[in-house]
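> tool_call: predict_assembly(chains=two)
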Amino acid sequence: MLSVNKRGTRRRLKKVRVAVRTPGGRLIYHYKHKKHSYAVCSCGARLNATPTGPRSVMSKIPLSQRRPNRPYGGNLCPKCMRKLMVASAVAEGLALLAS
Amino acid sequence: MGVIEVGRVCRKVAGREAGRLCVVVRIIDKNFVEATGPKELTGVRRRRVNVKHLVPLPVKLDIPEGARDEEVIEALKGTDLYEKLQKARVSG
């Protein structure tokens, strides 16, 4: 019989219910943590070198291991970052030419 | 080699030093140059740099090939960029 345990921590929306068949043949729910979402760039690409996990684990990881060590590291993917940098550098060059 | 030549002031667009200014001091081959910030000015270390990671600016310094960092700083003092570089150093 599938029954939902609504007591205590099990009631939290955070947890996800997974139906599991036990060795005894019963069908029960197991309560598992929801998966954490991946860090993504504004272009939709998944960011490399950005681990995901509960905050309790993430706060123990050094900052240098949580995002790439470059401007916009952990916010923009390298392609978007470079586009941004090239655009600003070209604009700067044109401004220098004009002055 | 086009516009990437000794003395050319460039902006780095990739890696940890992206967005910083640097000066080309030596051409290694068609893909790589040696560039320097110099480090105490812009934070860019003296290092080999892929040409694809540089965007040239319309400023060229009068420095010899393989110039030392002190020589580059002296050359930069004659340009408008020097103040800008020092500001960049304070903010970044």
